[in-house]
Amino acid sequence: MTPKEVEGFLRERQVMTVATIARDGRPHLTAMWYGFLADGSPALWTYGKSQKVVNLRRDARLTCLVEDGEAYNELRGVELQATATILEDRPTVDALGLSVYERYTGPIDDNAHEVVRVMGAKRVAVRIDVERTVSWDHRKQ
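RE: above sequence
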């Protein structure tokens, strides 16, 4: 995919599989909804005590996969090889929560702000600082 196609694909409503490194060196995989920070960086909105955050505090490397398609000739995806930055300031965490809410639940209204405020109390934002992008689109073959 071109960089523009990658950006468009990531902006579609998808689920991201996130791989962090567990204490014993094995991959720890989690399916996540994700959003975007004000600077456009993809990011996760997750509990600060979640296993993935524990892993990232020990080793900030992660790999993320977003994929789509049913039949082989429809498969497409993007792999992000990255380093995570854990952000804990409330304005950033809440803004990311609103991004995730809007992507997966619907338009932002007064209720959304309250839901995000309550749900976000124990959450952090994990910025995905992309170092390498790998993509494929079998529909182009």
